[in-house]
Amino acid sequence: MAALRQYGRRRWRRTEANKLWDEAIEESLQYYEKHDPVRADLMRLRYFGNCTEQQVLDQLHIGRTTYQKAQQDMLSTVAICAAQRGVLPPGLQRR
Questions:
Q1: What is the pTM of this model?
Q2: How sure is the predictor about 13, in pLDDT bands with cuts at 50, 70 and 90?
Q3: Which end of the chain is flanked by fewer CB atoms within 10 Å, N or C?
Q4: CA–CA separation, 33 vs 77, rounded Å?
Q5: What is the pLDDT of residue 50?
Q6: What is the mean pLDDT of residues 74-88?
Q7: What is the rounded distance in angstroms from the CA atom of residue 4 to the CA atom of residue 71?
Q8: How far apart (Å, rounded) are the C-alpha atoms in residues 15 and 44?
Q9: Residue 88 exposed, middle or buried by CB count within 10 Å (0-12, 13-18, 19+)
């Protein structure tokens, strides 16, 4: 997700769509901080900290299967939050 990689950069919030992505990412992060700190840490390390998959595995002391499941869940949560704000391309939203 390009939005996750761009999140927090200097000029990121200049467009309305980016502001909505920002809200979706923040909501997802806050949810995981409260309910699943491993996924919150994964989000911070992998997307905000630009760590490699192996670095995330090592820092969080998790296996690859756990990482893949956590990443899939986390990306789904961000996508749902983004869809609720109408920022996903029309082809990706359910009708």
A1: 0.79
A2: low
A3: C
A4: 13
A5: 85
A6: 91
A7: 12
A8: 23
A9: middle
Locate the DSSP E strands across 2-90. none
CA–CA dist 59, 41 (Å, integer) = 9
Phi/psi of residue 86, each to 5°? Answer: 75, 25
Q: How many CA atoms lie within 13 A of 61 on its CB side?
A: 0
* The pLDDT of residue 14: 72
Degrees to nearest 5, angle at CA 7 with 18 and 72: 100
Q: Which residues of 39-68 are buried (b: 16+ CB within 10 A; e: fewer)?
A: bbbbbebbbeeebeeeebbeebebeeeebe
- How large a percentage of the chain has pLDDT more than 90? 61
Q: What's the rounded mean pLDDT across residues 20-37?
A: 94
CB 65 within 8 A of CB 57: no
The letter for the amino acid at 83 is: A
